[in-house]
Design brief:
Two copies of one chain form a homodimer.
Chain A: E1 7-17, H1 24-35, E2 41-56, H2 59-74, E3 80-88
Antiparallel strand pairs in A: 1-2, 1-3
Amino acid sequence: MGYICTMKFLAEIEILPKKGLLDPQGKAVLHGMSQIGLPQVSEVRVGKFITLELDAASEAEAHEAADTASKKLLANLIMESYSIRISQG
Amino acid sequence: MGYICTMKFLAEIEILPKKGLLDPQGKAVLHGMSQIGLPQVSEVRVGKFITLELDAASEAEAHEAADTASKKLLANLIMESYSIRISQG
């Protein structure tokens, strides 16, 4: 039996509604931009930002776990796309 | 009267509940991680990811507009912290 060394990683996952899909929350926030004096904002999209702290043997393994989490639990792949950043935590 | 040249910028804003504050959504997602076979995840925090497309004369001006939007409309500064990335869109 060998030793298994793991390190702490931080996964930062950004999830957005896919382009072309209705984003009513984004539309509502866009409307608010004019009201607070920012008419130069022309489009707003609202999604989720999720951070995970996890143990993994390598950055690649941490990325794979974050990818699994995104696909199975965090993102709705029919309506949303996601991107993952991994750093040592 | 002079010309005013502006460029398109993309502002990406990440908003998270502040450390130490209760994040019930994060706790619920953490519970789900074990159920999908990812017990190596030890902490989850759930926040918002918002993108803005906007016109500005410079990256600094785009950042200032995104900062104003975050402070006045997008983030609840008592409970949340935010960070902004600007790129040319």
